[in-house]
Amino acid sequence: MILYEILYLAVIVISFLTAAIILLQIHKTEKKIFFLAESLFFGFFGVARIFYYIWDFRDPNHMFWVLGVSTAMVAMAFLLFAIERKIIHGTKYAFTICAICASILIIIPFSNEIHVWIQTIMVTMLAPVGVIYFWVIAKRSTGEVRKLAIIYFFGIFIWASGQFFRGQLLRDVEWLYYITAPLLFISGNIIILYVLVKRVIELEWPNKIHHLFIIHSRGGINLYDYSFTAKDTAESDLVAASISGITGILQEITKSKRKLKLLDSVDVKIILEYGSYIIGALITEENYGILRKKLHTLITLFELKHADHLKQFSGSLRIYKGSKELIEDVFSPKDIYESKILK
């Protein structure tokens, strides 16, 4: 029984941890309503699990089970609201209303058997909506978002499987109810946390980039620069030369063969990538992995396109004036599924 309690307490802790982490990320994203709804979902789910814990291990009074189910339905209502608001149009929040009604219906003093069937029917009807939602995102999206969505989908699916095995009808099957279900909850939550903490905020990268410089390694000449904002960077040639100079000086001082990859000044960061002939410098607010990948791709394509001119560099910049299209193609948010999902 001690192992059962430890697993169950771990579920409660990780539920609140997930809710807190999502809440802390809200200020970094424009999708505040969805993130808030998701945070409330995991938070209320954690509260529901406290009531279930009391019922399972401390006091078998049916009231605690009822409070757990009712709170879990409120949690479901928050998630369904966010989903119906953004992707399932035409339902007029029917699923959300069903979840709210279920949370009220379950506290009406029916018999225990009726309560169990209310829970079973509602969970069976409503839980697949969330799973299907994340599958739709995975199917419709491309690039980085698809990877994120697929991982997230499996996390939600595993987590929902834990909910299924935790149903009161399976309580007599101890290995499912007390061991398998908590392990599925925890595993699903870990996957969800991985996506949220490591990658989801990276979907905001188009709002974080400011300016790009393509600099010739020899002499620090600014071959081309591009502004992602309305404001142009003053003295672009001077900035490019300074970046090249700093990287060269630091490498000389440290006597290291490893090249400088990042200049960090709290609010502003300069991500650096190197080719055979050029340096790519991206001024941004965050050092996201996806930005480094895109910068590396740009450097590779730029050198392939202008290999002969870069190798025999004459100082003429005219040939590089058509680089805008290449930059906009590489740094286009086209791999972000922007329709009405998660806006």
Write the layout of secondary structure elements.
Blueprint: H1 2-25, H2 32-58, H3 62-86, H4 94-105, H5 112-140, H6 143-165, H7 174-199, E1 209-216, E2 222-227, H8 236-254, E3 262-265, E4 268-274, E5 278-284, H9 289-305, H10 307-311, H11 324-330
Antiparallel strand pairs: 1-2, 1-5, 3-4, 4-5
Helix pairs in contact: 1-2, 1-7, 2-3, 3-4, 3-5, 4-5, 5-6, 6-7
Any overview of this molecule?
With 343 residues, this protein is an alpha+beta fold. It folds into 2 domains: 2-203, Rhopdopsin 7-helix transmembrane proteins (Up-down Bundle); 208-334, Beta-Lactamase. Helix content is 62%, strand content 9%. The protein contains 11 helices and 5 strands; from the N terminus they run H-H-H-H-H-H-H-E-E-H-E-E-E-H-H-H. A 5-stranded antiparallel beta sheet has the order 2-1-5-4-3. Helix 3 packs parallel to helix 5 and helix 4 runs antiparallel to helix 5 (112-140). It is elongated. It starts with a helix and ends in a 13-residue tail after the last helix.
Short description:
The chain is α+β, with helices and mostly antiparallel strands and about 350 residues long. The protein has helices at about 1-25, 30-60, 60-85, 95-105, 110-140, 145-165, 175-200, 235-255, 290-305, 305-310, 325-330; strands at about 210-215, 220-225, 260-265, 270-275, 280-285. It has 2 domains: about 1-205, Up-down Bundle (Rhopdopsin 7-helix transmembrane proteins); about 210-335, Beta-Lactamase (2-Layer Sandwich).
